[in-house]
Design goal:
This protein is mainly alpha-helical and about 270 residues long. The protein has helices at about 10-35, 40-55, 70-100, 110-125, 125-140, 140-165, 170-180, 185-215, 225-235, 240-265.
Length: about 270
């Protein structure tokens, strides 16, 4: 009686695994080579970081300025306003597109394809690229940042909404259809009650993301606290940079706690 030898991977599988590992290592090597890492700068990085932290202390809390026009407080209010208005505008624009992108609601093939193209196009373009586009169109300021975040939110919110609609229970819809309910009644009383918790959960999650993004878009002139951060860096006011970073961290942490609490109540 011959013994059977257990082999975990066949020769073909071992060859494929080797090819995958080789490609990963090759990609890492080529990436490191292409970004042109300078060893002298890399070795000096700890010293430069230490010097930077020394210049950030003591933190310039006086620059927060509740009433000052150029204070951090006004920039923070602009950031919160940008994130809120962008989320509302994104919800308004994404909701009809999401319904049109759902195949079980919109049976018109070409209209469904157009809606899905809008979701892909708005989501694939980075928020920073949208910001650069709207800064060129409207000029630097909060309007450009609001439009940039709102347009990028369309793809995210619309995609989540369309998937929730396609996964909804068909029994309720069939009952309403059998009773002769018109299309708007099927949407209001059939689809919407099923997707409403997920919809508001996505809206809150998107607002949390928009708070983070609005703090960054100011670096390209799209308003908010990012503009104050960029200005402080350009003027080498590192003590003020430290304050702005602390404020951004605090706002992001508070928004995370708030969104988590609200989502638990909705779901």
């Amino acid at each position: 009686m011959s013994r059977m030898t257990y082999v975990r991977h066949t020769g073909t599988e071992r060859l494929m695994r080797f090819a995958v590992y080789f490609c990963c290592v090759l990609a890492i090597v080529l990436s490191v080579k292409s970004i042109e890492v300078i060893p002298e700068f890399l070795a000096d990085a700890p010293t430069q970081m230490k010097d930077l932290f020394v210049r950030m202390w003591p933190i310039d809390f006086a620059s927060y300025g509740y009433g000052a026009k150029d204070g951090v407080h006004i920039a923070l209010i602009d950031t919160l306003a940008i994130s809120f208005l962008a989320t509302v505008l994104g919800l308004i624009l994404a909701t009809p597109v999401g319904f049109l992108a759902a195949r079980n609601i919109n049976r018109i093939v070409w209209l469904n394809a157009v809606a899905r193209f809008i979701l892909i196009a708005t989501r694939s373009v980075s928020t920073l690229l949208w910001a650069l586009f709207f800064v060129a169109m409207f000029g630097p300021g909060a309007l450009a940042g609001t439009c940039a975040i709102a347009f990028h939110s369309i793809g995210f919110i619309g995609r989540m909404l369309s998937e929730a609609l396609e996964e909804s229970n068909k029994g309720t819809i069939e009952a309403l259809t059998a009773a002769g309910a018109p299309w708007y009644s099927r949407i209001l009383y059939g689809y919407w009650p099923q997707v409403a918790p997920a919809y508001w959960s996505v809206a809150l999650f998107r607002w949390d993301i928009n708070v983070r993004e609005s703090a960054v878009l100011g670096l390209v002139g799209a308003g908010g606290i990012g503009m104050a951060l960029n200005s402080a860096i350009d003027l080498f006011k590192w003590d003020q940079v430290a304050l702005i970073l602390i404020v951004i961290f605090a706002v992001v942490a508070l928004s995370e706690v708030l969104v988590t609490g609200l989502r638990r109540r909705l779901i």
